[in-house]
Amino acid sequence: MGNITAAITAVGAYVPEFRLTNKMLETMVDTNDEWITARTGIKERRILKDKDKGTSYLAIKAAENLIAKSGVDPKEIDLVIVGTATPDLPVASTSAFVAAKIGASNAFAFDMQAACSNFLYGMSTAARYIESGKYKKVLLIGADKMSSILDYTDRTTCIIFGDGAGAVLFEPNTEGLGLQDEYLRSDGSGREFLKIDAGGSILPASEETVKNKQHYVYQDGKSVFKFAVSNMADVAAKIMDRNDLTHDDVHWLVPHQANRRIIDATARRMDLEPSKVMMNIDKYGNTTSATLPLLLSDYEKQLNKGDNLVFAAFGGGFTWGSIYLKWAYNS
Which residues are catalytic? Predict the structure, then answer.
């Protein structure tokens, strides 16, 4: 028996049916398809139109997809982690509700909030529970209903984000597969560049904050882009150097889907061919916590046991990092 590592053994995903295309956005805000595509790589994004359904609905559907595909008994799940920037409610745990709804009655649950780095940080957290030897099945879900915090008259944000959810199951592995290394970072000086002003303890909700649209996400696009380009590329290159990986050794880059230009810059820094870069930003836009697991779902059939995957993400806060993982199964 070797040392216990934490391996992904199943993947699930869910995106809403409604497609908000660039052409549709042209009728809503001062923008056009050519500009959006050239600047971001996005052609459409999925939107959860049901006003009575929140992030938990997306998370539950992704978890149910994973359960149906893998055959795992929900009662055997020890822990449910939901990474989200758009929880159902400000206080009550979204993950606890999700766990109850999917039948994970023996699991404890908690939420994570690191913006677009939620799933990446969640992978690290899930791995620690598995590596402890006390937990055998950890369900990690990344889910966001970004449409609930977007101002569709603000072209700097409404063109970027979409709704969706993805889930993975972590289990113990003794073959040396699974999570190998991580390099996670944060810098609180960046929180002014990507945030929601109101609704927290500094500026509680009021008639004035609603009138001033302070409950919608704000982004200083140029500053965020500059930080993301350099930092995502830096951590991805660092994780390769630290593990003596060349571009030939890396089978896939799994990058956060914020902007096509940021993804391309990261791949160039790693000296990777485009064919090794997972990409679905054109279909979903930036689904925040869900981008990484949605990529795994879309590319699952192309993954082989032993493949070297490098994950990279950057989010508000600022939060960012990279993870090196060996894929544990043939699809």
Answer: 116, 256, 286
